[in-house]
């Protein structure tokens, strides 16, 4: 019987996930459809029970539901527990399992560029939900994670969580400083650049060995990446993270290896 998957969130109309997953199903001849549904916060419970009642095999969860969905689920995987957030749900024997592929998807997306993680230094700009998932995954790989955020208290809380989970981290204000000199990985996780706006921090003095990643997925290069390129850094945009979090969700749902190249093509076609 045909399987059904979906992504739920708000806003959702610009999600690339349906194009990416449906291209993968088509490529492998899998009898499945990936939908997208706009779900407002006050309808989340009905949406979860509705998806179950309709026989959905699983779904992705995006903003603003990644944390608020947790009380409606039966169990969490270690990755979801680590992040304190869920981006993937699977129905298994009638039970709703919450999982998170954002952190590991991010790691997969940079592995080709950053060979060593242990004892290297990552600087993350921003301390929101996206930053948290990435920070905890990097800390688990043995990186020192330095968080810079406009609201210092949020950076401090995230570093406390990193320490509680056995990692090492530090924090500072969202402005240029001596952190620029010795950084292996610099990750931009704020929404600055989503709408083509300028990036407020100058990166003068950033080490040339730095891999700079902006998790924003945009047809247009973000001002952050332009600035990092100008300083001689290697750069990656958010397409890789989106692709790999999707591929890991696919593998969690369906087993086997996700058809990465077909999914990448589906994603790129949608971006045109
Ligand atoms: P997400 O869950 O997608 O990461 P979020 O929780 O809204 O989104 O987090 C957005 C992050 O971007 C926060 O760290 C936010 O900083 P504050 O904690 O000070 O709010 C940061 N951010 C958003 N707009 C910003 C701006 N104009 N300048 C600097 N940082 C900004």
Would you kindly provide a brief summary of this structure?
This protein is an alpha/beta fold and 272 residues long.
Features:
272 residues, six-stranded parallel β-sheet, 9 helices, globular, six-stranded mixed β-sheet, 2 domains, Rossmann fold, alpha/beta, binds 2'-monophosphoadenosine-5'-diphosphate, 36% helix
- Ligands and ions found: 2'-monophosphoadenosine-5'-diphosphate
Number of helices: 9
CATH architecture label of the largest domain: 3-Layer(aba) Sandwich
Shape: globular
- CATH topology of the largest domain, anyone? Rossmann fold
The share of residues in helices is 25-40%
Tell me the name of the CATH homologous superfamily of the largest domain.
Answer: NAD(P)-binding Rossmann-like Domain
Residue stretches low in confidence (pLDDT < 50, at least 5 long) are none
Quantity of strands, as a count: 12
Biggest sheet strand line-up? 2-1-3-5-6-4
- Strand percent estimate: 15-25%
CATH top level of the largest domain is Alpha Beta
What class, by secondary structure content? alpha/beta
Counting structural domains, the number is 2
Give the N-to-C terminal Cα separation: 33 Å
Strand and helix order? EHEHEEHEEHEHEHEEEHEHH
Largest sheet: 6 strands, mixed
Taking all Cα atoms into account, the compactness measure Rg is 19 Å
Mean pLDDT: 95
Walk me through the topology.
Elements: E1 3-9, H1 17-28, E2 32-38, H2 44-53, E3 58-61, E4 75-76, H3 78-83, E5 88-92, E6 95-99, H4 102-110, E7 121-125, H5 129-140, E8 144-149, H6 152-164, E9 168-173, E10 185-188, E11 211-214, H7 223-230, E12 234-236, H8 239-254, H9 260-271
Parallel strand pairs: 1-2, 1-3, 4-6, 7-8, 7-10, 8-9, 10-11, 11-12
Antiparallel strand pairs: 3-5, 5-6
The structure holds 2'-monophosphoadenosine-5'-diphosphate.
EC number: 1.1.1.25
Protein name: Shikimate dehydrogenase (NADP(+))
Active site: 66 (proton acceptor)
